[in-house]
Amino acid sequence: MTAEIIDGKKIAEEIKNEVKRDVERMRASKGIVPGLAVILVGDNPASQSYVRSKGKACEEAGMYSVTERLPVDTPEYVLLEKIARFNTDPKIHGLLVQLPLPKHISEDEVIRAIDPRKDVDGFHPVNIGKLVIGQDTFKSATPAGIQELLIRSGNDPAGKHVVIVGRSNIVGKPVANMLLQKQKGANAVVTIAHTGAPDLRPYIKSADILIAAIGKPEFIKGEMLKEGAVVIDVGINRVEDSSLPKGYRIVGDVHFESASKVAKAITPVPGGVGLMTIAMLLKNTIKAANQLS
User: Fold this and answer.
1) Considering the domain 141-274, what is its CATH architecture?
2) Catalytic residue, candidates 7, 16, 22, 54
3) In this structure, are residues 143 and 277 in contact, taking their beta carbons and an 8 Å threshold?
4) Which residues in the chain come in under a pLDDT of 70?
5) 20 to 30 Å CA-CA from 156: which of 76, 185, 245, 250?
6) How far is CA 199 from CA 58, 203, 224, in A?
7) Which one, of 219, 197, 192, 186, lies nearest residue 207 by Cα?
8) Among 7, 22, 119, 121, the one annotated catalytic
9) CATH 1.10.10.60 fits 30-115, yes or no
10) What is residue 222's predicted lDDT score, i.e. its pLDDT?
11) Cut 0.85: pTM above it
12) How confident is the model over 170-210, as pLDDT tens digits?
């Protein structure tokens, strides 16, 4: 068996094109240009690259975009003041603060300070609560991207046993809550497996759909999978490789070569889940603009 490749780049482009059309319709019918503000504190290279990608994606979609860059030693109260300003800015419909933050700033306080109506990252406790009880809300971008990958690749999770390896607030917990809802594109039987288990292999082996978000490079091997499983690899890990000019390569949490011989379908790393995150962020910004207009 050779697994079908679930092409995150292609699906992300489909969503971005849909967003672009939505922006054009909103501009024509309501005279509104959806606006996204991003606040970046410090000079983390990965965060800087991600923020630049967000700005470029907004520009390509015809959206209004603002990036506020603050030095790493910015006091928490200054950041909270910036958030308060964007909360009341009518040109801004979506607002996010790039994580992680410097240690002297409370991520919880910052997330709670964002207006839930503009919380396009879907991290505010109000939106998390709505997600858990199945109400319409902003879905965190990476979990929402996972759901779209499954739906658009023809791997409907309804009735399937979905095993999520990892329990983070960013991926594991929200995607579990999304996929167990009695809704279209969900209605799965969901198990969350994590490092508290003495042995993860029995859980992994039982999965019709496996979502790997454990943060350990190539931890899950093909022999651990159920024959014909669908594998969504959320991991992005840097491993040393002296044969490459950069001296490293990017791999997922799944050993792709062995897993692709057992799985029915699999996402590559890179080229899978990571590309979906920005696309879903743009989609959330459209949703916010429609609700606020």
Assistant:
1) 3-Layer(aba) Sandwich (3.40)
2) 54
3) no
4) none
5) 250
6) 43, 8, 11
7) 192
8) 121
9) no
10) 97
11) yes
12) 999 999 999 999 999 999 999 999 999 999 999 999 999 99
At 47 the pLDDT is 87
Q: What is the CA radius of gyration of the chain?
A: 19
Any catalytic annotation for residue 43? no
- What percent of the chain lies above the pLDDT cut of 70? 100
pLDDT at 1: 72
* Residue indicated by tokens 């801004």: 92
Is residue 118 part of the annotated active site? The answer reads no
Tell me if residue 98 is catalytic.
yes
Query: Of residues 7, 16, 22, 98, which has the active-site annotation?
Result: 98
Q: Fold match between 30-115 and 141-274?
A: yes
Q: What residue ranges do the domains of the chain occupy?
A: 30-115, 141-274
Q: DSSP of 33-48, one letter per residue?
A: --EEEEEEES--HHHH
Question: For 221, which DSSP code?
Answer: -
Structure-block tokens of residue 276 = 């979906």
